[in-house]
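At this stage, I needed to go through a protein sequence along with its fold in token form, as given directly below:
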Amino acid sequence: MNRRGMALLVVLVMGALIGLSAMLLFSTSNMEMMIAGNTSRINQAKISAASGLSHFIALELDYVTLRQQAGDLESIQAIPRTQLGDKTFYEVNVHFCCGLSAGQYIVESTGYYMKGDKIISSKSSRSLFISSQTN
């Protein structure tokens, strides 16, 4: 093999390596951007759930009032779906079940990140509330 053929072969191999490196860099960058977007959507759903819990606390609803609203039901919707932004919502439910003592109830706030009518991400936050008033 002559020298010219060897130079062509080296140039082709180097070109292939550079092209492969560029494709790998693009693929890795694209994957990292998708992961960052997913993390952001999950965090927005978490923040929405925390907002729902804060909204419930601000309403200052007591155990007696909630129990009266629930009647014989084990769960009630305390706050219907509430929009925070273009894509974020929350809703809050109160549960009296699961072996809780009188005066105890669980508040579950669920935050959503939506695109159109489709839920992309949701996150729930639950808190146990204990009231001294049971009548």
User: Anything to note?
Assistant: The first strand starts at residue 75 and ends at 83.
